[in-house]
Design a protein that fits this description.
The chain has 341 residues and is of the alpha/beta class. The chain folds into 2 domains: 99 residues, Winged helix-like DNA-binding domain superfamily/Winged helix DNA-binding domain (Arc Repressor Mutant, subunit A, Orthogonal Bundle); 190 residues, Vaccinia Virus protein VP39 (Rossmann fold), CATH 3.40.50. Helices cover 50% and strands 14% of the residues. The protein has 16 helices and 10 strands. Helix 2 crosses helix 6. The protein is globular, with a radius of gyration of 22 Å. InterPro entries: Methyltransf_12 (IPR013217), SAM-dependent_MTases_sf (IPR029063).
């Protein structure tokens, strides 16, 4: 029997499509299936929203087509995929929402698994446990991207596009996904992606070339702290953005403040800093539970004390950003600080 036939037969016998997840059981099942899809390497292909065949998915995952047929049938039964013609499938309309929701489970229980599994060791010997139990960088990156797809990237993207920048700098850019998206929308603009990870920089260069913006994106392998002494990479930028990286250097005190001041000096007149980060233990009912976990994991396991909102704003004011303001995110505890020069 052909693999596609297996999918069609199993789909015909499946129950009616499931509505948007509303229970813990729905969320857990969807998150597990999407993590499997990610491990198979097929999520980027699915996220394009174009019809795909089982054969294409099997080739992307480098697995037997018959095995992929069973997995595709399961995704269809779970309402993550739907038939799109003869032997073709596409993601359900709410696939992006499901990716976003699954990101919270993926980040909490998988990306931070070393902390969840070993709390006693960290309470007894924080430094020793931190050296012994490390997070998987890939899991952190993937889960953060899934959360960010709707949790904080849209707000930053909107603010940056509204500034109509000719040059954008992203600090701690990782694989430069945000910058690549922005350059695709701003064909006259250029960008610089700064990150201390050699692997992330290589991936940023590769992804930029694949997206057709490689000639407009400069990739710089440097830590953010280096800007305190040499702000050359951000010189002349209309927008300097940083997403969830400034809290890693806030405890460095003078270095943090010098980086902010040098960034302000490097901005063109009228430019803005747009810093996406978090505040501790957000009290709002919508935010408080995930914010409590996020705050505790950072303070108790990563030695990162998140500054309160007013402290963030005060640090901007001390650096010369007199009109800094704060915009809440969909991400619980997340804030976008917009500081015009």
């Amino acid at each position: 029997m052909e693999p596609e036939m297996i999918v069609e037969l199993e789909w015909e016998s499946a129950m009616s499509p499931i509505s948007t997840p509303e229970t813990a059981a729905d969320l857990a099942a969807v998150a597990a299936l999407l993590e499997m899809a990610d491990r198979l390497g097929i999520v980027p292909l699915l996220e394009r929203g174009e019809p795909v065949t089982t054969a294409q998915l099997a080739a992307a995952a480098d697995v037997p087509e018959e095995g992929m047929a069973g997995f595709v049938a399961t995704l269809v039964a779970a309402a993550l995929l739907e038939p799109a013609g003869v032997k073709e499938f596409r993601v359900a309309d709410d696939f992006a929402d499901r990716i976003h929701a699954s990101g919270y489970l993926y980040w909490s229980l998988r990306a931070n698994q070393p902390y969840v599994e070993h709390p006693a060791e960290f309470l007894r010997d924080p430094a020793g446990a931190a050296a012994l139990y490390r997070r998987d960088g890939r899991e952190v990156a993937v889960s953060s991207r899934w959360i960010g797809s709707q949790g904080f990237y849209p707000a930053a993207t909107e603010a940056i596009l509204a500034a109509r920048p000719r040059r954008i700098a992203d600090l701690g850019a990782g694989a430069a996904g945000l910058l690549i998206d922005l350059l695709g929308r701003l064909p006259e603009s250029t960008g610089v992606a700064l990150d201390m990870s050699a692997g992330a920089c290589r991936e940023a260069s590769r992804a930029a070339r694949a997206a057709g913006v490689g000639d407009r994106l400069e990739v710089v392998e440097r830590p953010i702290q280096s800007l305190a002494d040499d702000p050359a990479p951000v010189a002349g930028a209309d927008v300097i953005h940083a997403g969830f990286v400034f809290h890693d250097i806030v405890r460095e005190g003078d270095v943090f403040d010098r980086v902010l001041r040098r960034c302000r000096e490097a901005l063109r007149p009228g430019g803005i800093m747009a810093i996406t980060d978090a505040v501790p233990y957000a009290p709002d009912g919508r935010e408080r539970r995930f914010s409590a976990l996020f705050t505790y994991l950072h303070a108790g396991f990563m030695d990162v004390e998140l500054p309160p909102e007013e402290e963030w704003l005060e640090r901007f004011r001390q650096a010369g950003f007199d009109q800094a303001r704060c915009v809440p995110h969909r991400f619980p505890g997340g804030r976008l600080f917009i500081a015009p020069k």
